[in-house]
Specification:
Blueprint lengths: L2 H29 L3 H28 L6 H32 L3 H27 L1
Helix pairs in contact: 1-2, 1-4, 2-3, 2-4, 3-4
Length: 131
């Protein structure tokens, strides 16, 4: 199996596992009547889902070429990591505006999104370094 294929399988399996944890927590919190906390877990799951999808986009654009395996992995990494900056930039801007206007609930939601994106990025880098 090619390196890109192995990375894809391992990484997406890990993200699926993480998504299941967030969804499970969300359902449990709803049962307990903790709807605000359940919403935050749902948001985390949505972030994982977003980065799973953009990973597939990056994978399809970089790993389907005729380049050497290491070059494909480098292309995948550069393309995928660029999405983290691109997607997170508006969240950072909104977070700053929310803080400026004392909108702490909205600020906290943006912070959760950014923290979750960083967690997903760290997982990717961990798996990328394996290959």
């Amino acid at each position: 199996m090619e390196l890109c294929e192995e990375l894809k399988k391992d990484y997406l399996d890990k993200l699926e596992e993480l998504l299941n944890v967030y969804n499970g927590k969300s359902k449990e919190l709803r049962k307990q009547g903790a709807n605000d906390e359940a919403i935050l877990e749902t948001i985390k799951g949505n972030i994982v889902d977003i980065f799973s999808k953009v990973f597939n986009v990056s994978y399809n654009k970089s790993c389907k070429s005729n380049k050497a395996q290491k070059d494909k992995l480098n292309d995948l990494s550069m393309m995928y990591l660029a999405f983290f900056d691109k997607i997170s930039a508006p969240w950072k801007e909104k977070m700053a505006k929310d803080k400026e206007h004392d909108m702490m609930e909205e600020y906290y939601i943006e912070e959760i999104k950014l923290e979750t994106a960083e967690k997903v990025k760290a997982i990717f880098l961990e798996y990328h370094d394996k290959y």
